[in-house]
Specification:
heterotetramer; A alpha/beta; B alpha+beta; C alpha+beta; D alpha/beta; A: Rossmann fold; 5-stranded parallel β-sheet; two-stranded antiparallel sheet; 6 helices; 7 strands; about 30% helix; globular; C: Arc Repressor Mutant, subunit A; Glutaredoxin; 5 strands
């Protein structure tokens, strides 16, 4: 049987959702028999494959680059899972939305810089005015709230998808969990 | 109770035959019979206001949805507390509430002890379709014991009512209107400078979210204690007789 | 003994006496609050916190309630207004006939946002939900007098005239 | 009979004046004309009459609204078939010169037009006829005769029966049968009852109530007194917008006059029955047109509605049984009582009796105040009475009912104006604002204008209205900016449904109407603004 291909994406988040995914412990072996991770911060692929069955996205949309990435992913992916509060609600990254982008950069790179204070300008994606959840830009098929979602919820979601069912994880996790 | 006799009504809630005093609300009767209707602005012991609209129920023979918290029973009434339509509306109302202010559950002191969060789980709200409004809100930490964080306020008015009706201080009220409505103390004075606040803390404990909290609590530490409400309400009722 | 100190009452202030008269007319009842706030605004030009405190004490109302009522109604101003006021009618008829253009013109020419006052304090630019002179749309009310069938140019000229008149 | 003698006495000075005069000149002194300078015209005419020694021979008086507000200041000489438009004070001499000859051609506009001929005036019967600041003039025109009649010849239940039989329905918006409302209040228990007049005319684009109060304030007082007697109230309140200073002034003057004359106050017209009326000022909150919010405001509180039941008829002002009707409803009562229910119900349609006052505005040649029998078609109102659209541009829609109403397109121009038809068309009768739009209006923009209004007027109490209106306004802004997708339109429509079904009061429940009605008739204008739906296309690609 052909394995289901999966990508995991890391946008504006703390990587805690990826950690929580790894927290499914030995069950990852069971999943690995049916699932192949073809793109992820955890593996070494550089470019997004032409087709992926499932993409699990952690993190909120914060930069112009994030949007480009998302649109590309959406067009090359079957099912998109927004994993964790940042992807689902904007969560902690969205707390900067009450400030001007310039002020945010200054706080980080000028006021609190130990040396060489100054805003970064080259080679970096520029910050969007507002941080938004993933579904504001592309269609999301499964939402898994939680900060991070517990490993059990992630395992449940992935197993259900592998079974061809539509997972409803809300009884296993919630906003802020 | 006065010795005036109150008539008894019989009605159906979700297909079950129940009886009620004529002056009881659908919500109260449902609760007595173990039928749990979602509520947010309602709190036993405070005057119901019918503002959050989560407790809307269907009544056979009427196409109007009625708030269970303020609608009194009628003989032969047939009430439905759950339906596809009700559930859809309730979910939308919750989504509106989540989109209105800046509810970042992960860093909230009331995380895990929050009525809004619980309702989201119960009604199956796993994401918010409406764009977040991201208003700029104030956090008032001027009081030596309490903090008011407007980012998490749902304008249910429980604090306003408990302060006016039970404590008798009426330190809180609403100011402004529409989506600009805010709860304020005195003349929008910092809470710590309020002359009328008695520091009783009831507002903090009736607050359904982390909008009113005790100082010095960290994330997920602020559980609310509401045991005082039934007793105070009972005392007040006895005083009135 | 209750140690509550009533706010000091300026017995000599004519404006306050007008407010007091209004409250007395309504028997100092709670229900007199809105009528009293009208009297305060008529006498003082706006609702200042000190006067509101005295009103609250007189009508035996909680401060938060007074503030809540004062901020609920669009008519009440919490800040002093400019020497002259221009109230733009934003009713439907005026909207259809170009109230938006009048707004843009005034905002640009006088550098003032709707709801604000010019830096020199000469002009407050406010809005009202229909002044009921729809036949004359678009209408503004300048210092209490309705002026109708306006074009942006005519309005600017009129306002200039009003401001220049007392300089 | 004693009471009628008293009224006769009050009216006598006017009757004498009129009997002695050969000419009468009426100058409109309602707010619209005053703002174009009619008060100066009146002053000048009076001064010149005095100068020329015409006093007694030529009466000059200020009267209420004559209708063609856009032509102000308007002046009418005698009962001729012309009306002078755009009169200035320097025209006074010429008008007086022409008294016994031909009318001043330069100013004259014919009154032999559908604008005047097609109107039937009940609520406005004295508007433009009597001096609103003189009780005598009102009484001379059968004023307070209906009150005298009910006091001496009718039992409360007979009054209610008459109102019920007439088929009169509330003119404030929803069209609740007036007789039914009255009888509910009459039957309610309690020792104290109130009669309240809703004059918080908040619809942008409506000025019917203002005009009635400015033109014929006593008529409203008489209607209230009759209602109060029928239901057993002894105190009345008129809740009027603070933005209507002239109406307030004239109302207060009218109350004083009638109290001094013994018509209102203690022992009305010498009977054992008391009725006091006080004016309460609104302060700029559209939601206070909703009856429970209005009552909260009279009580000095924030004007937030509360769930009904209990209805004000059971528990209203200060917890007492309260009758609430709007200005136009009360203004219909005196004529209804004088002429009888059969007379009243002979006008109108099967379900909507009598007449309705409309404030006709927008892209129409004759803007102003009109009163027509219920059942008149929209086409007659726009093209006959309204004189069509300037420069003969094509008609696009007519908006009725203000922010709670909707836009009706050209296809339905032949629909009769009555409560049921308008609501079937997705609009409402409302209080009577009628805004005509030509092809230059973008309907999405119109919907957004009303949504913006409701958003800023939402009281904030219930969640669907408070947050829902905000999102709806934002979505409309997004659609207008050309950045919205089909998904956004779907969100908008879902919100319409939510607000209609779950909002606490009528404001929230009706808030989506302007959007729903424009979507119903002008959906293509929305769709034309949508961009390719990113989300949907991806979903489609997947399906393929």
């Amino acid at each position: 049987m052909k394995k289901t291909t999966m990508a995991t994406i890391w946008l504006d988040g703390c990587s805690g959702c990826h950690m929580s995914f790894l927290d499914i412990d030995e069950r990852i072996l069971e999943l690995a028999q049916r699932l192949e991770i073809t793109y992820s911060p955890l593996v070494d692929t550089k470019s997004y494959p032409d087709h992926v069955d499932v993409a699990v996205i952690e993190g909120a949309v914060s930069t112009d680059e994030d949007i480009i990435k998302l649109k590309k992913i959406r067009s090359k992916t079957g099912l998109i899972v927004a994993l964790g509060d940042c992807a689902v609600t904007g969560n902690v990254p969205s707390m900067r939305n009450n400030f001007q982008v310039g002020d945010v950069l200054d706080r980080a790179y000028v006021e609190n810089a130990a040396r060489q204070p100054g805003r970064p300008h080259e080679m970096l994606p520029s910050l969007l005015e507002k941080v938004k959840p993933v579904h504001d830009y592309v269609k999301v098929d499964v939402h898994v709230p939680g900060c991070p979602p517990p490993a059990d919820a992630i395992y449940y979601v992935l197993s259900e998808i592998l079974e061809g069912r539509n997972p409803d994880p809300i009884q296993m996790t919630r906003f802020g969990r | 109770m006065s010795d005036q006799t109150v008539s008894i009504k019989t009605l159906k809630i979700d297909g079950r035959d129940v009886s009620a005093r004529a002056d009881e609300t659908i919500l109260a009767v449902a609760q007595q019979n173990g039928i749990d209707i979602p509520t947010l602005c309602h709190l036993d012991g405070l005057t119901p206001v019918g503002a959050c609209r989560l407790c809307l129920v269907e009544i056979a023979g009427s196409n109007k949805l009625l708030p269970a918290c303020v609608t009194t029973v009628r003989e032969g009434m047939e009430v439905f507390t759950e339906s596809e339509k009700l559930n859809r509306y309730r979910k939308m109302i919750l989504e509106l509430l989540f989109s209105e202010r800046n509810h970042i559950c992960a860093v909230c002191v009331s995380n895990g002890h929050c009525d809004l969060q619980d309702l989201a789980v119960r009604l199956g709200v796993d994401f918010i379709r409406y764009p977040y409004l991201h208003p700029v809100e104030k956090v008032d930490a001027s009081h030596d014991r309490f903090v008011q964080d407007d980012n998490r306020c749902v304008l249910c008015g429980r604090c306003v009512r408990v302060c006016g009706e039970l404590e008798g201080a009426h330190t809180w009220d609403f100011m402004g209107r529409g989506v600009q409505t805010r709860v304020i103390t005195d003349l929008d004075t910092p809470w710590g400078e309020s002359d009328s606040c008695t520091r009783c803390g009831k507002c903090v404990h009736v607050c359904p979210t982390g909008a009113l909290i005790e100082k010095g609590r960290s994330v997920a530490e602020m559980a609310k204690r509401r045991q005082f409400l039934p007793y105070l309400t009972l005392m007040r009722q006895e005083d009135q007789q | 003994m209750i140690d509550y100190v009533h706010p000091e009452v300026p017995t000599q202030d004519k404006r306050w006496r007008l407010v007091q008269a209004e409250m007395r007319k309504h028997g100092n009842a709670h229900s007199a609050l809105i009528q009293t706030l009208h009297a305060v605004q008529d006498a003082y030009g706006y609702l200042d916190p000190e006067t509101l405190e005295r009103v609250a004490a007189n009508l035996r109302l909680p401060l938060s309630k007074v503030w809540g009522v004062a901020t609920f109604y669009q008519h009440f101003r919490m800040k002093p207004s400019g020497k002259h006021t221009c109230v733009l009618c934003t009713g439907t008829a005026c909207y259809i006939k170009g109230a938006g253009e009048l707004q843009r013109a005034v905002e640009e020419y006088f550098k003032v946002k709707l709801g604000g006052t010019t830096e020199d304090g000469e002009l407050s630019f406010l809005s009202a939900r229909c002044v009921g002179a729809c036949g004359l749309a678009p209408v503004v009310v300048v210092d209490g007098e309705a002026v109708g069938k306006l074009t942006p140019e005519a309005l600017i000229n009129h306002l200039e005239g009003v401001i220049d008149a007392d300089q | 009979m004693l009471i009628n003698d008293e009224l006769q006495q009050i009216a006598q000075p006017i009757l004498d004046e009129e009997a002695g005069a050969e000419h009468s000149i009426r100058v409109c002194v309602a707010a619209g004309c005053i703002s174009s300078g009619s008060d100066k015209v009146l002053k000048e005419l009076k001064a010149q009459v005095k100068e020329r020694g015409l006093e007694g021979r030529c009466l000059v008086k200020g009267v209420g609204c004559m209708g063609p507000c856009a032509g102000g200041p308007v002046v009418r000489v005698d009962d001729g078939d012309v009306m002078y438009h755009n009169v200035g004070s320097d025209d006074a001499g010429e008008i007086l010169d022409s008294l016994d000859g031909e009318p001043v051609k330069r100013l004259a506009q014919s009154m032999d037009t559908p604008f005047f001929k097609r109107q039937v005036k009940i609520a406005l019967e004295n508007s433009g006829v009597i001096d609103p600041e003189r009780l005598e003039d009102y009484v001379a025109h059968e004023g307070y005769h209906a009150l005298a009649r009910v006091l001496t010849q009718m039992q409360p239940w007979e009054i209610i029966d008459e109102v019920t039989r007439s088929g009169l329905r509330g003119r404030g918006g929803a069209g609740y049968p007036a007789g039914l409302k009255w009888s509910t209040v009459a039957k309610a228990g309690g020792t104290k009852k109130y009669a309240v007049c809703n004059a918080d005319e908040g619809d942008p684009g409506a000025f019917m109530d203002r005009s009635v109060l400015e033109s014929d304030p006593h008529r409203v007082l008489e209607g209230m007194a009759i209602a109060a007697m029928a239901v057993g109230a002894d105190q009345g309140y008129i809740y009027v917008r603070a933005e209507y200073p002239l109406a307030i002034k004239r109302l207060e003057k009218a109350i004083k006059q009638s109290e001094r004359a013994g018509i209102l106050g203690k022992r009305v017209l010498g009977t054992t029955y008391d009725f006091h009326v006080d004016v309460r000022l609104g302060a700029g909150a559209f939601v206070c047109g909703e009856e429970t919010a209005l009552l909260a405001s009279i009580e000095g509180r924030r004007g937030t509605p509360r769930p009904r039941p209990p209805y004000p008829a059971e528990s209203g002002l200060f917890g007492q049984s309260t009758l609430i009707n709007n200005v136009e409803t009360y203004a219909n009562i005196p004529a209804l009582i004088r002429n009888g229910a059969d007379w009243f119900s002979s006008m109108g349609t099967e379900t909507s009796k009598g007449t309705k006052v409309f404030a006709l505005a927008g892209k129409v040649n004759n803007t102003g105040l009109i009163e027509v029998p219920m059942g008149t078609t929209l086409r007659d109102i726009v093209y006959e009475i309204g004189g069509g659209i300037p420069e003969d541009r094509p008609f696009k829609a007519v908006q009725t009912g203000g922010p709670s109403g909707g836009c009706i397109p050209a296809d339905h121009l032949d629909s009769p104006v009555d409560y049921e038809t308008l609501s079937k068309l997705g609009s409402i009768m409302g209080s009577g604002g009628m805004i005509v739009m030509d092809e230059s209006s973008n309907m999405v923009d119109v919907a957004k204008y009303f949504m913006e209004f409701t958003t800023s007027e939402s009281c904030g109490k219930c969640v669907p209205c408070r947050v829902g209106t905000t999102h709806m306004e934002n979505l409309l802004t997004k659609i207008l900016s050309g950045e919205a997708t089909h998904h956004d339109l779907q969100l908008l429509e879902e919100l319409c449904d939510l607000l209609q079904n779950t909002s606490l009061c009528g404001l929230g429940q009706a808030a989506p109407n302007p959007v729903v009605s424009t979507l119903r008739y002008f959906r293509h204008e929305y769709q034309a603004l949508l961009t390719d739906d990113e989300v949907e296309t991806t979903a489609q690609e997947e399906a393929e």
